[in-house]
Amino acid sequence: MTTTISPTPATRASANDVEELVDRYTDNLMRAALSLGFPEIEAEELVQATFVAYLEACKRFEKRSKILTYLFGILYNKARETRRFLGRHESIDKTVEDAFEGHFDHEEHWDQTSMDKMTELEKKAQDSAIGKLLADCLEGLTAVMRMAFTMKEVEGMDSDAICLALGLTTSNLGVTLFRARNKLRECLLARGAVIV
Amino acid sequence: MTLVDSLTAFTCKRFSRHVASELLPLEGGLYAKVQFWIHWAICPFCRRYWKEINAIDQLQHATRAGRDPALNMTDVKMRLKKNLMKDAS
Description:
CATH class of the largest domain in chain A: Mainly Alpha
Number of helices of chain A: 9
Oligomer: heterodimer
Number of domains of chain B: 1
Largest interface: A-B, 55 and 44 residues
Largest sheet of chain A: none
CATH superfamily of the largest domain in chain A: Winged helix-like DNA-binding domain superfamily/Winged helix DNA-binding domain
Distance between the termini of chain B: 76 Å
Helix content of chain B: over 70%
Distance between the termini of chain A: 35 Å
Structural class of chain A: mainly alpha
């Protein structure tokens, strides 16, 4: 969908523009805000702040991207400014890398402990229980990890659009997804979930 | 190093980093791709890891999709329109 909401000459948008904007993009933005872990009321406030910022800045929108990508970029930046995500960065990245490295022996193959864990008898868990565990584990991710993961897996956006919205290079995005997935895997396994 | 040694030299660490990064091209061209798939064929633990990573992706998709119907999006949209119009006026 590439149609744009036309900005009014002044920075103010018309009622029709607002209606169209809200009708078309609220579902995607609410999904992203909820995926970032905000409760419903805060998610709605975040989406509203995103629309306000867009309506104020839509004259500057250069149409290099789709509006949805642009809106995701605004939402991500607003989310990062909240108390929820402040100061949650390097320490998580280092933890994920250390945990990942710890699974391999000196020849870079799985070590015995990791292999033993993988061959344990499977304990089947209910989907809902795993869903709850996943929600808990998502709490441990940074804003960029959650946003990248959501845009990729829930919204099905291509990597170029994700990179544009989040200000990442393709290489950074690959590393971010790698860390998000491994952080989730470590967390789920630590809580006894069998995910296959 | 024999040809067999060379073809099976791909490590578990490299394999798992590649599947979880997904977007980063495999360095080493076609030969590395062959090594990658040979490793996939001979290492049950890496196959398992790949399955787990895929399952996490699918789980996130399903969990997110499952939660949305609980939200009354019509009400949310109505409130947003009202607030945004108020801001604009």
